[in-house]
Amino acid sequence: MLRPVHLFSQRFSLIQVGAVCLLVAAVAAVAGRWVGSSMPAGVHELADAPAEIGSAQHLGEKGAAVWKQLQRRYGTRNTRNAEEWVVRDHFQDKRGGVFLDVGAADAREWNNTYFLETALGWSGLAIDAQPEFAAQYARLRPRTRFFSLFVSDASDGVEQFYVPANGPLGATSNKDFAGSEGRVEVRSVPTITLNDLLAREGIARLDFLSMDIELAEPRALAGFDIERYRPSLVCIEAHPQVRQQLIDYFHRHHYVLAGKYLGVDAQNLYFMPDSSDH
After folding, report:
1. In order of start, what are the domains of the chain with their CATH numbers?
2. How far apart are alpha carbons 257 and 250 in whole angstroms?
3. Cα–Cα distance measured from residue 25 to residue 21, given in angstroms and rounded to the nearest whole number
4. CB 233 within 8 A of CB 258
5. The pTM is what?
6. Rounded CA gap, 214 and 174, in Å?
7. Where are the beta strands (DSSP E) in the chain?
8. 118 vs 34, 111, 186, 234, CA distance in Å?
9. How far is Cα 195 from Cα 179, in angstroms, rounded to an integer?
10. How far is it, in rounded angstroms, from Cα 187 to Cα 192?
11. Which of 5, 60, 202, 273 could tie 259 with a disulfide, CB 3.0–4.6 Å?
């Protein structure tokens, strides 16, 4: 089990978060200019890493080192970032777990739960507001139940949903966020809470929660009894607009950041139950 990094009780303002990001970027930029014999021990190895390490390397030497360790241990991955490696590392390739994948999108490509099901025998629920993905799950994911719904803080409503013409991965319920992606298709999608869906489907426990729904994460969490299901690991996309709300939510429910992975994934945050509470 990883040693958790406790969250401070005070709030982190966007100004503070921005300042830290700028500092990290500046340090990484300086580190990136180190060449030849001026590199400290260990950095030569990182310089020889595949091009994909760039997604972690901008966070600095430590992030790149952890990325390389995970890559060496787990090899190729299906996920867009380091999500699959993090999940495997946390659970140590545990078999037969249960997942909840919110904003699941494609059944295989850039998917956070594909490996869990196909290689480790996990099962669970996948939810996405776009029904176009249903056929893939039916064909490729027999242990996953797919639902085309919008996860929110209330069930039986209707949500306006915006799908960019240039691809489905930026689809969102936030009109302003969608507008930044160019031309969009507007749809009406029925809503459901995670509590209602889990109860309806008879899910009594969760090991892993993955959530990537483009700024709608706080609303989805408002309809989820995390104290009841207590997933061992949460991977959640954390855009700057909602990052503080997410940190506050998990802090209130006695979850801590998995600090080991902060340097390998700039898009997501990873949370675990605070073991000191028990």
Report:
1. 14-277 (3.40.50.150)
2. 9
3. 6
4. yes
5. 0.79
6. 8
7. 98-102, 123-127, 144-147, 150-151, 158-164, 184-192, 208-211, 233-237, 255-257, 268-273
8. 42, 12, 34, 20
9. 31
10. 16
11. 5
Pairing of strands 233-237, 208-211: parallel
pLDDT tens series, the chain, 278 aa: 433 444 333 444 444 444 444 443 443 333 333 323 333 233 333 334 444 544 554 667 888 889 999 999 999 999 999 999 999 999 999 999 999 999 999 999 999 999 999 999 999 999 999 999 999 999 999 999 999 999 999 999 999 988 887 766 777 777 777 766 568 889 999 999 999 999 999 999 999 999 999 999 999 999 999 999 999 999 999 999 999 999 999 999 999 999 989 889 889 999 999 988 65
Residue located via tokens 């249903």: 134
Q: What 3-state class would DSSP assign to 167?
A: coil
The first and second tokens of residue 249, run together, are 């939510």
Residue of 113, 122, 120 whose CA lies nearest to 78? 113
- Please state at what angle helix 14-32 crosses helix 240-252, rounded to 10 degrees: 110
Closest CA to 152 of 131, 136, 129, 171: 129
Q: With 0-12 CB in 10 A as exposed, 13-18 as middle and 19+ as buried, what is 75?
A: exposed
